[in-house]
Write a structure and sequence with these properties.
Elements lengths: L4 E5 L8 E7 L2 E8 L2 E6 L14 E3 L2 E2 L6 E2 L5 E3 L3 H5 L3 H5 L5 E7 L2 E5 L8 H6 L6 E2 L5 E2 L5 E2 L1 H6 L4
Antiparallel strand pairs: 1-10, 2-3, 2-5, 3-4, 4-9, 6-7, 7-8, 9-10, 11-12, 12-13
This protein binds FE2/S2 (inorganic) cluster.
């Protein structure tokens, strides 16, 4: 899938440390609030490729549950248990292990994600500007004029798209 995907409601990410997860096609992704800035990454640890955040939403550090690597706002592992004795990763080596970034956009109080970190973040806002008509999102969900979202399965059942 190559497009913007609805990931979460903005309220889910309103405070520092709040995060939300989802999928863009078969790729697990996450968005987290870092001191008021929403940053998104692939939700796969750089160490042994574990899925890191497994709940739809939550609050806390971006920490892998497997060996407890903690990632910063740039997706770089900043805390690595036993680094001094086992891994010996300096800052440059840590940067090579940064999580791949994704695109993040806020529009209409909703948070959208895109696999391309350089994707045009104005696109979701353009959808929201379509007053009085429905907008079909890339995942098949439909946003009505009142900004009520119908998941794609519901939209199909009701014949909305
Ligand atoms: S797999 Fe994530 S810290 Fe080891």
């Amino acid at each position: 899938m190559n497009g913007w995907v609805l990931l979460a409601h903005g309220d889910d990410l309103a405070a520092h440390g709040c995060w939300a997860t989802g999928w863009i096609g078969a790729i697990p992704v996450l968005v987290r609030n870092f001191n008021g800035s929403l940053r998104g990454f692939r939700n796969v640890c750089s160490h042994r490729f574990a899925l890191m955040l497994t709940e739809p939403t939550g609050k806390g550090p971006l920490r892998c549950p497997y060996h407890a690597w903690v990632y910063d706002q740039d997706g770089v592992p900043k805390a690595i248990p036993f680094n001094d004795t086992d891994f010996h990763l300096d800052d440059a080596a840590r940067k090579t292990l940064a999580l791949p970034a994704i695109g993040v956009a806020m529009a209409g109080g909703l948070v959208f994600a895109h696999l391309d970190p350089d994707a045009d973040s104005a696109v979701p806002a353009g959808w929201m500007a379509g007053e009085g008509r429905e907008c079909t999102l890339p995942d098949g969900s439909v946003i009505g004029p009142d900004l009520v979202i119908l998941h794609r399965a519901s939209a199909r059942r009701e014949g909305a798209c």
